[in-house]
Amino acid sequence: MIPATRSRVLNRLPSASLLAHVSSKLGRMPCQRFLSTAWLKDSARLTAPPTISRAMSTVKAGVMPDVVSKPLKADLDPSKLTITLTKTPKSPPPPEQLGFGAVMSDHMLVCEYNPESGWSAPSIQPYAPISLDPACAIFHYTPSVFEGMKAFVGPDGKPRLFRPDLNMARMERSTDRVSLPHFDKDALLVLIKKLVAVDAHWIPPMRGYSMYIRPTLIGTRASLSVASSTSALLYVILSPSGPYFPTGFKPISLISMWDTARTWPGGTGAYKLGINYTPCFKPQEEAYSKGYQQILWLLGDERRITEAGQMNFFAVVQRDDGDIDLITPPLDGTILPGVTRSSVLSLASSHSPTSPLPGLPPTQRIHAHERTITISELQAHHARGALLEAFGVGTAAIICPIDRIGYEGVDMVMPVNEGLGKVGKAMWDEIVAIQEGLKPSEWSVTCE
Ligand SMILES: *Cc1c(COP(=O)(O)O)cnc(C)c1O
To answer: Which cofactor is essential here (predicted)?
Structure first.
């Protein structure tokens, strides 16, 4: 990094000292090459922070950027965190009254991005309404990114997160997809841990209970012009939640839909964006009115399965050789890359005679496949009695068994013993044990 000369790189021809510096780094004289895109990219990699290197990578060969003489933008900085505790703490409701998402804890994390100064000092402050200009982008073109993760209390009393690095990486990709200001994802994780630690007493210390964490990033540029929002508000709120299945596993029913799409090739279905959800509300009501709880989203002429409601879809199929196939659609841009999905795939591959998953025959292999599965393939497995289980997976339910899938007026009815099949149950047991700190794993991260 050579901060003193960085603005010059962007503004004008490189200074002699910068050229000397860069050429020594590159081991060659830039000479005539310094205006080429390749040179700009090389030098950006060596000297500029990510925001600037992005600007430079769009520079056409032989053209210098117009004016980028703004002061350096500050990134999210946990060392600048201020904590203001509420003077009127609420009492958490009795655990048995907790559903999902209705009750918020006492505090929230807030940080604003302003195009002139970058990210403000982050603040943990009393939970309260926010005030925004009615012209803000979020109210019109809806740039909105979110994440969903959970904190659990371990036997040591410490709150812990489950694979939060995957949530942060996904949030970074979602942010980029809607052109909102980037942020340091590791810094955000540090801040989230601090927030959870401040409100840790809101997590009921009982099995199955957790604190749902909702990091949110919205575009706040106060202008009706149709362009990316150069201002943003990042906040994180916490909602203590009860078990998804308070009285034992309850399988859900799905109705297949293909005339409306949750996602499509080239669309945004692989990102956690608010805009992906609203268009699903009406089809969801339709499903409900037909007597099904959620939708099995099919896509394309071949009617391939994408997701189950807002969960990733898995089918468990008996093989002729006695092993099991575990099939989920591939991350082809139409599928949300779920943390639970990724965990189920890893656990399936780890199942072996030496480290079997709970309740599964150690010698029976689970072959995990990320591949296209069409509704007619699913029907064929079902017709020959080989479809052992189908389930949706996601942070909220972890594993949600499916007992009925409606397609073209006919119901495929799945056998579900005790609510959840053997493979689903093994996954659920293993993931919950790791989340709640009962089984040591690098997937579980404590908040100090
Ligand atoms: C969040 C989400 C999932 C599940 O992702 P997890 O990281 O496992 O919670 C699956 N599908 C959609 C559409 C989602 O929004």
So the answer is: pyridoxal 5'-phosphate
179: number of Cβ within 10 Å: 13
Judge if the beta carbon of residue 340 lies within 6 A of ligand 1: yes
Q: Is the CB of 315 under 6 A from ligand 1?
A: no
pLDDT at 274 over 50: yes
Asked if the structure places residue 67 within a domain, the reply is: no
Angstrom distance (rounded) from CA 262 to CA 298:
9
Smallest Cα–Cα separation from 163: which of 150, 181, 175?
150
Domain count for the chain? 3
Atom in ligand 1 nearest the alpha carbon of residue 149? 9
In 81-187, at which residue ranges do the beta strands (DSSP E only) sit? 82-83, 107-114, 118-119, 123-126, 144-146, 149-153, 159-162
Pocket probe for ligand 1: among 335, 336, 344, the residue whose CB has the most ligand atoms within 8 Å is 336
Mark whether 227 and 133 lie in a shared domain. Answer: yes
CATH number, domain at 403? 3.20.10.10
Domain stop point among 222, 241, 260: 241
Taking the centre of ligand 1 as the mean of its atom positions, its distance from the CA of residue 394, in whole angstroms, is 5
Domain boundary (187, 212, 241) is at: 241
Pairing of strands 410-413, 366-370: unpaired
One domain for residues 338 and 386: yes
Q: Tell me, yes or no, whether 69 lies in a domain.
A: no
Cβ–ligand 1 contact at 272 (below 6 Å) = yes
Q: What is the CATH number of the domain that holds 95?
A: 3.30.470.10
Q: Residue 165, Cβ neighbours under 10 Å: how many?
A: 14
| pTM score | 0.84
Considering the domain architecture, whether residues 410 and 291 belong to the same structural domain is answered as: yes
Strands in 40-106 per DSSP E: 82-83
CA of 3 to the centre of ligand 1 (A): 40
Assess whether 288 and 386 both reside in one domain.
yes
Say if residue 322 is in the same domain as residue 379.
Answer: yes
Contact 268, 275 (CB under 8 A): yes
CA of 311 to the centre of ligand 1 (A): 5
What pLDDT shows up at residue 337? 98
In tens, the pLDDT along 224-251 reads 999 999 999 999 999 999 988 888 899 9
Coil, strand, or helix at residue 431? helix
| DSSP 8-state symbol, 58 | T
